[in-house]
Write a structure and sequence with these properties.
Number of helices: 15
Number of strands: 12
Mean pLDDT: 91
Strand content: 15-25%
Distance between the termini: 58 Å
InterPro entries: IS701-like, IS701-like_DDE_dom, RNaseH-like_sf
Order of helices and strands: HHHHEEEEHHHEHHEEEHEEEEHHHHH
Structural class: alpha+beta
Protein name: IS701 family transposase
Shape: globular
Length: 412
């Protein structure tokens, strides 16, 4: 709260955002303005709904404060910016950005929202950092839906790589220390994003499809064709990082691409990963202003998985996808406060540099449990729980009366 309090001009929203963050950190069965208001001891959900939907504060400025906080607590010269999108399954057609589209979260085409997230990973830890909601053309070309969802007039259609580029530009403009960018095929297949990263002198390890074509001394070749022709001595067994069950070992090979040079100079490679059990291949386009050894590229490729851990932690523990808001501003505010809560946990976990013998270092999820049990829960009052039981039953009684009265007007 010391980091973001200045973004809230009055004491009331400052108190509410503190209580809102405490609700996000709490192990509530579901998280929305009703359950968070009950957890805070408010006399109803209106205050939390006002904080998310109507109060005056700038979510972009809060995310900028979070970025500065992360730079201090987790910053490292070799930091990695990780880009990826995640989907929130939704019903209906009125929630901003929703349509039937492919979601990697569901693994199929579903009715959902998609958002591009920027994560920061360093030797100290990793956390979500910034976000951009993806608006399909069905939304940007429909003035009625835009007005209903409160989409600003300045927001037009942008592809996911274009949104990722804006997030990266913002992070660099804010002075975040970083050297690399990692992402999956949705971003590795966009040449404009790669060119923008080279212009920033940011190295990258971006996944590409097996059909990706690269210039070689034998002409333009597909990535999978190159892999087929590699001799056994070209492969090296290297760990892509530590996992819960041990090192993530794969076979790796990389091919220098001197014919891929452009006005940005630097060094281009095609990096190939082979699963040691199934033989499945994955491909990456890599670039760095300086020559780097293979294990550096492998380490950056391994960092990309950190954003999946962040998605899991924020969805299962902080309610990232549990919002019930349809409008543009409310969606961004909810997501911003979840990002802030996750950054707090990541920084606090990183500060715990020593653990007793026989214990693993404290994790973000374990820290969230401890923080709630030791700090938040002891301040709650039994009378608040009883008051909310009365409030819910009164609200349900009022709703029942309204439904019966409406029915009486149309039924004989």
């Amino acid at each position: 709260m010391d980091v973001v309090a200045s973004r809230f001009a009055r004491p009331e929203p400052r108190r509410r955002v503190r209580d809102f963050m405490a609700g996000l950190l709490a192990p509530l069965p579901s998280k929305n303005c009703w359950t968070i208001a009950e957890h805070a001891g408010d006399d109803g959900p209106a205050g939390m709904q006002d904080l998310i939907g109507r109060a005056r504060w700038d979510d972009a400025q809060v995310r900028a404060d979070v970025r500065d906080f992360v730079a201090v607590k987790l910053g490292h010269p070799d930091g990695v910016l990780v880009i990826d999108e995640t989907g929130d399954l939704k019903k209906g057609v009125h929630t901003v950005g929703v349509q039937r589209q492919y979601s990697g979260t569901a693994g199929k085409v579903e009715n959902c929202q998609l958002a591009v997230h920027l994560s920061y990973a360093s030797p100290a830890g990793h956390t979500l950092l910034d976000v951009a909601l993806y608006l399909p053309k069905a939304w940007t070309d429909d003035p009625g839906r835009r007005v209903e969802a409160g989409v600003p007039d300045t927001v037009g259609f942008a592809t996911k790589p274009q949104l990722a580029r804006r997030l990266i530009d913002t992070a660099l403009a804010g002075g975040l220390p970083c050297r690399w960018v990692a992402g999956d095929e949705a971003y590795g297949g966009d040449p404009h994003l790669a060119a923008a990263l080279r212009e920033h002198r940011l190295g990258y390890v971006l996944a590409v499809a097996c059909s990706h074509r690269v210039p070689t001394g034998l002409g333009i070749q597909r990535a999978d064709q190159i892999a087929t022709g590699l001799p056994a001595r070209a492969w090296q067994r290297i760990s892509a990082g530590q996992g819960a069950k041990g090192h993530r070992y794969y076979d790796w090979a990389f091919i220098t691409l001197p014919l891929a040079t452009d006005q940005h100079d630097g060094h281009h490679w095609l990096l190939i990963r082979r699963n040691r059990t199934t033989g499945e291949l994955a491909f990456y386009r890599c670039w760095s202003p300086q020559l780097v050894p293979l294990h550096h590229l492998v380490a950056v490729a391994g960092r990309r998985w950190s954003i999946e851990e962040s998605f899991q932690a924020t969805k299962t523990g902080l309610g990232l996808d549990q919002h019930q808001h349809r409008r543009w501003r409310a969606w961004h505010r909810w997501t911003t406060l979840v990002i802030a809560a996750h950054a707090f946990l990541a920084a606090a976990a990183a500060a715990n540099t020593t653990s007793p013998h026989g214990l693993i270092p404290i994790t973000v999820n374990e820290l969230r449990r401890l923080f709630h049990a030791l700090i938040i829960e002891p301040t709650r009052r039994v009378t608040d729980v009883i008051a909310w039981s009365i409030f819910r039953r009164q609200h349900q009684a009022d709703a029942k009366i309204s439904h019966y009265a409406r029915q009486a007007l149309i039924e004989p």
